[in-house]
Write a structure and sequence with these properties.
The complex is a heterodimer of chains A (114) and B (110).
Chain A lengths: L3 E4 L2 E4 L5 E7 L5 E8 L3 E8 L6 E2 L6 E5 L5 E5 L8 E8 L9 E2 L3 E5 L1
Parallel strand pairs in A: 2-11
Antiparallel strand pairs in A: 1-3, 3-8, 4-5, 4-9, 5-6, 7-8, 9-10, 9-11
Chain B lengths: L4 E3 L2 E5 L4 E6 L7 E7 L6 E6 L5 E4 L2 E6 L4 E6 L8 E9 L2 E4 L3 E6 L1
Parallel strand pairs in B: 2-11
Antiparallel strand pairs in B: 1-3, 3-8, 4-5, 4-9, 6-7, 7-8, 9-10, 9-11
The chains are: A mainly beta (114), B mainly beta (110).
């Protein structure tokens, strides 16, 4: 029962470096999401993909890009990391994206940008 | 700017006591209200999803109510146990996106 799998779990970057966070789900879900979690801020939506082939900006998209590679995979890329991007990142998915469907979360990626 | 607000930010509860806390959200363009439980070092897990005004959901000792007209939801924990210690997140859903509140951290002490 893998559910939503995120890699890596931890990452340290230097300012200006790039990296891609990987997310895959095995529940045949249509919708996938990337959130960041910062103290006192709750979970803030970075990007989401309502279905394969579509992506949309969330609340805090600046500095990030996403790719919905196929139905299973949704990656988040930091092209030029900044200290402000130090955060915990969560990938999530849900079935058809209907408003009454719950989210399933990955285990998170703790990212530090020095 | 958080349109979804939770209060209090944290609370301490004695084992066996009951408690409740609030989530407020914009009542316009409302589709669903989600509650998630988030334990330290784990991922958030869904407790309830509610859509209709007056909805009440229950899972064991935890229950929730929804008032969509005035834009608030209450989460209740009856007879708190140490294993109920967690951060409880609510999220308001519209157009496929969920906006989360900052959470209420609950600490239950024996």
């Amino acid at each position: 029962n893998a559910g939503v799998t995120q890699t890596p779990k931890f990452q340290v970057l230097k300012t200006g470096q790039s990296m891609t966070l990987q997310c895959a789900q095995d529940m045949n879900h249509n919708s996938m999401y990337w959130y960041r979690q910062d103290p006192g801020m709750g979970l803030r939506l970075i990007y989401y993909s309502a279905s394969e082939g579509t992506t949309d900006k969330g609340e805090v998209p600046n500095g990030y890009n996403v790719s919905r590679l196929n139905k299973r995979e949704f990656s988040l890329r930091l092209e030029s990391a900044a200290p402000s991007q130090t955060s915990v990142y969560f990938c999530a998915s849900r079935g058809g994206g209907a408003t009454n469907e719950k989210l399933f979360f990955g285990s998170g990626t703790q990212l530090s940008v020095l | 700017i958080l349109n979804v607000e939770q209060s209090p930010q944290s609370l301490h509860v004695q084992e066996g006591d009951s408690t409740n806390f609030t989530c407020s959200f914009p009542s316009s363009n409302f589709y669903a209200l989600h509650w998630y439980r988030w334990e330290t070092a784990k991922s958030p897990e869904a407790l309830f999803v509610m859509t209709l005004n007056g909805d009440e959901k229950k899972k064991g000792r935890i229950s929730a109510t929804l008032n969509t007209k005035e834009g608030y939801s209450y989460l209740y924990i009856k007879g708190s146990q140490p294993e109920d210690s967690a951060t409880y997140l609510c999220a308001s859903s519209s157009w496929g996106k969920l906006q989360f509140g900052a959470g209420t951290q609950v600490v239950v002490t024996p």
